[in-house]
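This section describes the prediction task in plain terms. A model, or a person checking by hand, is given the sequence of a single protein chain and must write out its three-dimensional structure as a string of tokens. No templates, partner chains or ligands are provided. The sample shown here is typical of the held-out split.
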Amino acid sequence: MEEMWSGAPELDGANAEELFVEVAPNISVRVLRWVPTDSSAASLGSVVVVPGWGSVFEGWRPLLAEWVSRRPIIYIETREKKSARITRKVRRGDFEMSHHGRDIAAVLDKLGIDSAGIDWFSSSLGATLLIDSYQNGVLTGRSSILLAPNPDFEFPLWAKILLNMPLPKFIHPALLRFAVWIVERRTKEEGQRIRYRRSLLSQDLERLLLSSRANIRYRLPQDLSSVSVPCAVMTASSDTLHGMDKVLGIVDRLPNAVLIEVPSNQYAHEADVLVEIEEFQSSIGN
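The expected answer:
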């Protein structure tokens, strides 16, 4: 599974680059960047993609393989992922939501990109951290598509008990296999089930546990009135891991947000979803 976390994937129609950007002392995150070989597409503003918790690039390949020929794409992996280079002992506090938002801002600063001109695309944890960052003035943007954002990270009671117990490292693999079993039972969509299994099995187990402990304490602010970025919240009724009611609650709280309902969560990872994405992005300012 190490190949999941290294190298810049070569995609047709674009030049690829892998960067590691220091976002805090002893912490660097992996950034993938594609610039279209078509000069007219390369001159367009960047799309910044922030994937979900533990998400690996392979799950997004079908969408990005098409998108990189149309727009410059910057794909930023958050610090809980195995790709992050952390050269000190990690703690639960390293994975608080506020750190993720500041990491994204630090990456853009290092790349010399003003977030005000960005079209964002994000999923799950990535979508949640962006909403949090918009509300708190850490980031802004031209537009933002938020796939299945989480207002909170609810775990069943037994999982809460386990997460709060001191767990020796030798039982981590067994816990991971158990987590895969639980996710597969809760997921209706076959494509989503495959993605989640692949993602879970490729993680750094210590970071996964600590980030779970941080996420379980998080709640998206009720007041989102300071969010000025035009947002579209994307979801699928068949996505049983991201409750529809909670997602709709976020739409109601975001100023002037729109809902984009797609056939499935897997559809949102495929090239066909560019129809909905580009329709929303082109509507901004019209």
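For orientation: The chain has one domain: 2-283.
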